[in-house]
Amino acid sequence: MPGVFDPLQMKNGELRNRIVFAPVVTNFGLRNDRTTQYYAERARGGAGLIIVHGTPVDLFIKKDWVQKLKPLIEAVQREGARVAIQLWHGNDLGGEAVAPSAQGPCREITRVEIRLVIEKFAAAARHCREAGFDGVEVHGAHGYFINQFFSPLTNRRKDDYGGSLEGRMRLAGELIGSMRRAAGEGFLLLYRHSAVDGEPGGTTAEESIQLGKTLEKCGLDVFDVSAGRGQHDALSIPESSAPEGTHADLAGRIRAAVSTPVIAVGRIQTRGVAERILREGKADLIALGRQLLADPFWPEKLRQGRDEEVVLCTYCDNCTREMRNGRPISCPRNPLLGKEAGFG
Questions:
Q1: Residue 88 — φ and ψ, nearest 5°?
Q2: Would you give the DSSP letter of residue 59?
Q3: Measured between alpha carbons, how far is residue 73 from residues 64, 149, 238, 316 in Å?
Q4: What is the pTM of this model?
């Protein structure tokens, strides 16, 4: 079985190791030197794949807007990492609140509008490839718009985009298929998915296995396995109390059924846990979010055998609170977070 620092061959090249920097919203903005240096630092610290935080897909319809991300892309790639960006769609469509089925302030989205959403993601994938990104990730997790189609808790449609599991998988499959046709075969497509809802009557792991198999057939390259709806994990316990590798077993159930590489995420902090997840075949890649906020050089320190020098995240949740309040994230463990280029 592979180790943390073994490379992974992908269709458009090699990842230097199995470490992914997970998409963490920063509120730093995107097209500026502060953000460029923030991501470059995580690449310099040794991560193999950097996933830029979730960004509204509507922005990527404008080719010129995407081209202005070239400095960020090139800065990460110069440090030896590959870079993808996570594309997100909320419940707003042209100023109206929509959802798979009518709920709260949202009306049910029409089939014509669903096609418009699919076309947005296809155009975004094409523009990201033209700008130099190695790939894009569809945000299909955590109770957001795309995940709402998959979950029986939020999709009560009567047409072929709802009802059966096949119907609830249709949007995700059409998204990946359209993006593959638009971006071509040499471009990485990732999909982040909540494997279970953690609520009665919600998504099950068995359904998520079927989604993984379906997306694989549609052209998916990497299945990024998370859990839960909203900001809470499926165990309904505080992050600070969760065990290391808290979602790895879910990832492992899917990994056993698909041939697409799988990412495991969820409080991975130590070499031992990371190596165990890979050794047991639960994932092909491991993603760290908050831990690489606290110490962007976690990968390089472990590679050099300097494990005792790692600054561990305490899961105090300060970064999440700041993000939810619309402020730039900060970390008590890393006073230089967001100041990598001298900003502050």
A1: -125, 140
A2: G
A3: 15, 31, 34, 31
A4: 0.95
Residue entry with tokens 């379906």: 214
Task: Tell me which residue has tokens 């809470």.
Answer: 232
Q: How far is CA 80 from CA 46, 50, 77, 228, 340, in A?
A: 8, 10, 5, 33, 18
One-character DSSP codes across 239-300? GGGSPTTTTHHHHHHHHTT-SS-EEEESS--SHHHHHHHHHTTS-SEEEESHHHHH-TTHHH
**Average pLDDT over every residue of 46-64:** 96
- 144, 161, 191, 315: the active-site residue: 144
**Can you name the CATH fold of 8-313?**
TIM Barrel (3.20.20)
What distance in Å separates the CA atoms of residue 338 and residue 344, rounded to the nearest whole number? 7
**How crowded is residue 14: how many other Cβ atoms within 10 Å of its Cβ?**
11
Rounded to whole angstroms, the Cα distance separating 17 from 15 reads 5
Maximal C-alpha separation, the chain: 57
Active-site residue 191, yes or no? no
Q: What's the mean pLDDT in 27-54?
A: 97
The Cα–Cα gap between 226 and 263 comes to 9
**CA dihedral over 169, 11, 48, 284, signed as positive or negative:** positive
Per-residue model confidence as pLDDT tens digits over 206-246: 999 999 999 999 999 999 999 876 533 333 344 556 778 88
